[in-house]
Amino acid sequence: LRLLPWQRYLRAERADVSALERKKNVLCCLITRILKVEKQLHIDNLVFRVIDACRKGELGPGLQFLSFCCHSVDVLSCVLHLLNQGYLRRQEERPHVLEY
């Protein structure tokens, strides 16, 4: 077993953090774009749409990115982040429906 030198490890860790941050930003952008169009959507449908858009590499009209693997946990984590930031809200009578 050979360990990477300390400096290389730090550079690799920073690159991983940067990639995760970009992925989070793309997912949050997808979520808000989809909900801006739909106005309200069941959380399951939203997750499926975001995963499908990631798989196809579609961000929205005129914008594209390289397709990447995303899982429902990634999308749900971003949904919770957007809920906490106040960008999204749940319907009081139907908490499984999200609104922009």
Automatic annotation (TrEMBL):
Domain Cullin neddylation: 19-96
Xref: SUPFAM superfamilies: Winged helix' DNA-binding domain (SSF46785)
Origin: domain of life: Eukaryota
PANTHER family: CULLIN 7-RELATED, CULLIN AND GALACTOSE-BINDING DOMAIN-CONTAINING
Protein name: CUL9 protein
